[in-house]
Design a protein that fits this description.
The protein has 346 residues and is an alpha/beta fold. 40% of the residues lie in helices and 14% in strands. It has a single domain, classed as Alpha-Beta Barrel (TIM Barrel), CATH 3.20.20.70. The protein has 12 helices and 12 strands. Strand 2 and strand 3 form a beta hairpin. Helix 4 runs parallel beside helix 12 and helix 9 crosses helix 10.
């Protein structure tokens, strides 16, 4: 995946770039992103003389066919990172046939995104008044969204002043007179409490299903949670530590992905995000049990550096890299790669 970080830093300036990186306060300057580091320790073991006619990296999920097991995930304040914000990413995803998730803290109207790309999901926080979340789901259904990604881990910063990178991005959005999707008018502080339990979750799930949309639950790191959430009838879980933006000490995602996947035994769709930076990470994620690998910061860097063209060329190149890696692995599809073809460095 082309690394646009330097161009992104130049385009955004140090402060906003710092917010985008979101390095937590307990991380030292020379510490690597724990998710990126964890993925980079996985290495691929090729098989030879497998005799295939070609390689197919398309992915069937949620009744759709995607060009690859890759999607673009949610991020707040999208227009701070590029004039067209998430619409530019939606256009690139539509051209390449990849799904996109839009944050309720994005400032581009949802209907503008769904008009650009039908395969759009809205990400909502699982906290605060249930009626608020249901009302937003209704708006998402009206706008034509496929589903809701419900963030259940660290749904908001529970302590004031915990801004990733030290930047109060909500203030920057308000200064420009923009409205977030979630606030509908202006910028509302997201409610942290009441925090939800399984009863609220079940009610929310039923409301979204009644609207004809699917539900993916984001931020599932523990296998027992995955089993309990799966039992409610949701459509998928996303293993995610939300990009270790609060603390360096969150468990990295790859190992938890494998644990969650073992616990779920193929009973539901599994998505993963956090630190996916290379086509090899996407293949590793597939082997560890993910049906779809979701990427955020590399896409936002590309958006900041070169807009829609940069996003599209980066994602297109990633699909190409996936195809050639698969061929080198002796696999006709990513699903053919077996667990013994993935090793971790000591
Ligand atoms: C600038 C920025 C804003 C984000 N805003 C949200 C958000 O509103 N909701 C959410 O669920 N995750 C949000 N995230 C987390 C991402 O969706 C994702 O979980 C995380 O960045 C890990 O993926 P990555 O390592 O590919 O960036 C945000 C991430 C970034 C970088």
């Amino acid at each position: 995946m082309k690394d646009w970080r330097d161009e992104s830093r130049a385009a955004l300036g140090a402060e906003l770039f710092g917010y985008l990186l979101g390095r937590p306060h307990d991380m030292r300057p020379d510490d690597a992103d724990p998710n990126e580091l964890a993925w980079s320790r996985y290495r691929l073991v090729p098989r030879v003389l497998q005799g295939h006619d070609g390689v197919d990296v398309t992915c069937r999920l949620f009744g759709r066919v995607y060009a690859a097991p890759v999607g673009v995930g949610a991020f707040a304040a999208d227009r701070l990172f590029g004039a067209d914000g998430v619409t530019a990413i939606a256009r690139a995803c539509a051209a390449l046939c990849l799904p996109i998730v839009v944050s309720e803290e994005a400032v581009t109207p949802l209907a503008d995104v769904t008009a650009t790309h039908a395969d759009c999901w809205l990400q909502l926080r699982a906290a605060g008044p249930l009626e608020r979340a249901i009302r937003l789901s209704e708006s998402a259904a009206q706008a034509g969204c496929q589903g809701i990604v419900l963030t259940v881990l660290a749904p908001v910063h529970p302590a004031p002043g915990l801004h990733p990178g030290g930047v109060d991005v909500a203030a920057q959005v308000a200064q420009r007179g923009w409205s977030t999707i979630g606030a509908q008018e202006g910028v509302a502080k997201l409610p942290a409490f009441p925090s939800w339990g399984m009863d609220e979750f079940r009610e929310m799930l039923a409301a979204i299903h009644a609207l004809g949309m699917r539900v993916v639950v984001k931020g599932v790191m523990h296998p027992a949670d995955a089993i309990a959430i799966r039992a409610t009838g949701c459509d998928g879980v996303m293993v995610s530590n939300i990009g270790v933006r609060q603390s360096y000490r969150w468990a990295p995602v790859p190992r938890q992905l494998e644990r969650v996947s073992e616990a779920l035994e193929g009973s539901t769709a599994i998505l993963v995000d956090g630190g996916i930076r290379h086509a090899a990470d996407i293949l590793a994620a597939r082997v560890l049990g993910a049906h779809l690998a979701v990427v955020v910061r590399p896409v936002v860097h590309a958006l900041a550096a070169g807009g829609e063209d940069a996003v599209q060329s980066m994602l297109r190149a990633t699909i190409g890299e996936l195809q050639s890696l698969c061929a080198w692995m002796g696999a006709a599809t990513p699903c053919d790669i077996t667990r013994d073809q993935l090793i971790t460095l000591a």
